[in-house]
Design a protein that fits this description.
The protein contains 8 helices and no strands. The chain has 140 residues and is an all-alpha fold. Bound molecules: protoporphyrin IX containing FE (HEM).
Length: 140
Amino acid sequence: MKALAPLALALLCALQAMPARADDSLYTQLGGKPALEAVVDGLLQRATQDARIKDFFKETNLKFLRTQLVDQLCAVTGGPCRYEGETMKNAHAAMGLNLAHFNALVEDLQDALDAAGVPFATQGRLLALLAPMHRDIVTR
Ligand code: HEM
């Protein structure tokens, strides 16, 4: 039994030296910050050209919205960001959005995720996080 002690010690040392378990957050699965930025750019490009919803973005500072969206998506997917913007209720209250508007934006997001090469299952995880937000965003 005693003869195994050095072996056990060596094993423990080896385990200590190993990097922490790979991060399995959705943020990492999506591809981190560069991937989120590409997805948000793709989403805004599509939404601002989508006849069903583009008018909502006419007066919007798109650069600011991009920053807010990247921070929010990074934070909700477990990334190293803080979202300090408006609540979803406050941000969308004056727009009078209905479910068709919401679904149109989600379609644009899915197209942007496809274009960024995000696998279907990972897309599903992200959409599952965002879908419940319709309760605060859709007001009519
Ligand atoms: C899950 C769905 C959605 C998410 C996660 C989301 C997220 C956000 C965020 C983070 C902001 C910035 C808030 C701030 O000012 O700090 C914002 C603003 C905005 N959202 Fe959404 N949104 C969603 C749905 C929609 C939909 C369906 C529309 C319209 C069809 C829309 C149109 C806008 C516009 C126009 C602004 C900017 C308002 C302004 O100019 O101040 N959003 N959204």
